[in-house]
Design goal:
heterodimer; A: about 260 residues; mainly alpha; two-stranded antiparallel ribbon; about 50% helix; B: about 350 residues; alpha/beta; FAD/NAD(P)-binding domain; 2 domains; 7-stranded mixed sheet; 5-stranded parallel sheet; 8 helices; 17 strands; about 30% helix; about 25% strand; elongated
Chain lengths: ~260, ~350
């Protein structure tokens, strides 16, 4: 499959004005539709290295544009605009402005990894999609996705305690994503759980909510994991030149 | 075998032919219009040759020395053939320096002429000093000066190499592929990246023809090891914003017009027929093929034959050719001369 056919004029580049006069000429209305330039005016040579610095993106330089990833892609079958091959090309050539046009669909990768198996060059396109989605978030082009929030809540808890306490994870996830805990499905679930009166389970859950369960002697392991995470994070910050942008580090207020 | 053989042109093909004849004890007269031997690789100051990676002044210089040291080769520099007549085995030659010779056969190794980029004015050569040709970059490298912008001598941070300048361009009557420019450009891109690691090199192509084994050593290696970027785009125009060169065109993979700033633009110039070919054709009474190169009369049954018996041709006089193949053709033409004389000897005996 070739890099997808797309309409040369994107809808967002079309502008009409209800009332506009330029140099005494009335250019209002549909008949005077303006089309914004679609010219690529520069390359960002750092782009490939930045994506390669994020987990999953390391092999992007190996791509030879065969298109196997896009051909095998689950999401592409539904949405032709979802085109890993095309994005890999843009990243490698440094066409950042073109990449950003698709910022709202890149995160849609479902991680089925069909591309991973189809790729003859071990580019690991699924990883590249993940790295690109993270790059977009860290650069501030897209808001932090719900799944990113979930990953963070989950990781923070593991690092802190060595254990997962589901109700805490759920509560923090809803809080971070500013969702109400009173979801209809949640209420239904709790009702059904209560109807069976599982006394032992409810007691354990109640206790776990009050006292966070913790793996014994966890502090040294926790410190080591945290040190590794900080190290990785620092490397990525440097690669993306984010220190320059004075971005605040992600929250570390765990469990 | 009493008469010498005339060889016209002392580039790779002519030097190979002269050497070949000398190795079997046959005399030759090597006529070169320039004052030094070596042809384009020496005259144009090429740097490292494809695919050996040897410096031109060593590789071709070695061939020159071998011929200069050979007593069976009579070298005539600064001379052109002004008159040529007779029959195979018995030709009369007059040179522009006045000397006259009797020869048994002639090998034309008259080569090509580099495309003159001013014939593509839209690509800025001759208008902007930082638009240069592959030949000029070769000279920057071979002279030891390094790749620098001619306008102010600065190191470029971003270089564009435009392929097919004077090749595959019907608009200016040059339909042919010059065959070697893709490989030379990939090699040059790697040399630039090697000398200036912070300089990014973009190659704008319509197709990449790093044919045969060059695919691995130049096409893939330049991308994988040297991060040279290949962009499928036919460039419409090279202009300037006063500071940088602006390359305009369309990236046909992305389907977006591009206007990208560059420090230096390199034209990968093609191989034109030798500008002297019409004169050569009339002096020797031979045919040119439709593009203006010397026509090869028999591709299969005989080696290196022109339309006139007794006159042979080798190297890029017949069309765009690599140095390696020019050398092989020079040897082949020498063999063709020898076998034709054997036939003549056999018939007369």
């Amino acid at each position: 499959m070739p890099i997808h056919e797309k309409s040369l004029i994107r809808p967002e580049n079309l502008h009409t004005h209800d009332e506009l006069v330029i140099d005494g000429v009335d250019v209002s209305g549909h008949w005077s539709t303006f089309i914004e330039s679609r010219v690529v005016s520069d390359y960002n040579e750092a782009l490939e290295d930045e994506i390669a610095a994020l987990p999953g993106g390391e092999q992007i330089h190996r791509c030879w544009q065969c298109g196997s990833c896009t051909n095998s892609c689950t999401v592409n079958a539904i949405n032709a605009d979802f085109n890993p091959r095309y994005w890999i090309y843009l990243i490698r050539m440094g066409m950042e402005s073109e990449l950003l046009r698709d910022k709202d669909i890149i995160w849609q990768c479902v991680s089925c990894n069909k591309c991973t198996y189809a790729c003859p060059r071990d580019v690991f396109p699924e990883g590249v999609m993940k790295a690109t989605a993270h790059w977009l978030e860290r650069r501030g082009h897209t808001p932090k996705s719900p799944s990113m929030h979930f990953d963070e809540v989950f990781t923070e808890q593991i690092v802190k305690t060595g254990k997962i306490e589901e109700s805490r994870t759920i509560r923090r996830f809803f809080a971070r994503t500013k969702q109400s805990l009173m979801q209809p499905w949640m209420i239904e679930m709790v009702k059904k759980m209560l109807s069976g009166l599982p006394v032992g389970l409810l007691t354990r859950m109640g206790l776990a909510t009050l006292v966070a369960p913790k793996t014994s002697d966890w502090s040294r392991a926790s410190a080591a994991i945290q040190e590794f995470i900080d190290e990785q994070h620092e490397q990525q910050e440097q690669a993306l030149n984010l220190a320059r942008l004075a971005k605040s580090p992600p929250q570390k207020d765990a469990a | 075998m009493s008469k010498p053989t005339l060889i016209v042109g002392a580039g790779p093909a002519g030097l190979a032919a002269a050497h070949s004849l000398a190795t079997v004890g046959k005399e030759s007269i090597l006529v070169e219009k320039e004052d030094i031997l070596g042809g384009a690789p020496i005259l144009s100051g090429y740097a490292k040759l494809v695919p050996s990676g040897e410096w031109a002044k060593d590789a071709i210089g070695g061939m020159v020395k071998r011929v200069e040291d050979e007593s069976l080769v009579k070298v005539e520099t600064g001379a052109k053939v002004t008159n040529f007549d007779g029959t195979p085995g018995n030709f009369h030659v007059e040179l522009s320096n006045g000397s006259k010779h009797e020869v048994d056969a002639a090998i034309l190794a008259t080569g090509f002429t580099h495309f003159d980029s001013v014939n593509k004015p839209e690509w800025g050569f001759g208008t902007f000093p930082d638009v240069v040709t592959t030949t000029q970059v070769e000279q920057m490298i071979s002279s030891g000066q390094g790749v620098r912008c001619p306008s102010d001598g600065r190191k470029p941070n971003r270089v564009a190499i435009l392929l097919c300048v004077g090749s595959r361009d019907r608009q200016i009557g040059r339909e042919w592929c010059s065959k070697i420019c893709c490989t030379v450009s990939a090699n040059m891109a790697m040399e630039i990246r090697e000398e200036l690691p912070d300089c990014h090199v973009y190659i704008y192509y319509m197709d990449i023809r790093t044919f045969g084994l060059y695919e691995t050593k130049y096409y893939w290696r330049s991308q994988e090891e040297f991060k040279v970027k290949y962009i499928k785009a036919r460039i419409a125009e090279v202009t300037s914003d006063g500071e940088k060169l602006i390359v305009k065109g369309e990236d046909t993979l992305v389907k977006r017009p591009i206007t990208i700033p560059f420090d230096m633009v390199v034209h990968a110039i093609g191989m034109d027929p030798n500008v002297d070919n019409p004169d050569i054709a009339s002096t020797f009474g031979i045919d040119l093929e439709s593009h203006g190169y010397i026509d090869v009369a028999n591709r299969y049954g005989g080696m290196a034959q022109t339309s006139r018996p007794g006159i042979y041709v080798a190297g890029s006089a017949t069309g765009p050719e690599t140095i390696d193949d020019s050398i092989a053709q020079g040897h082949a033409a020498a063999m063709a001369v020898l076998s034709s004389l054997k036939e003549a000897i056999g018939k007369s005996a």
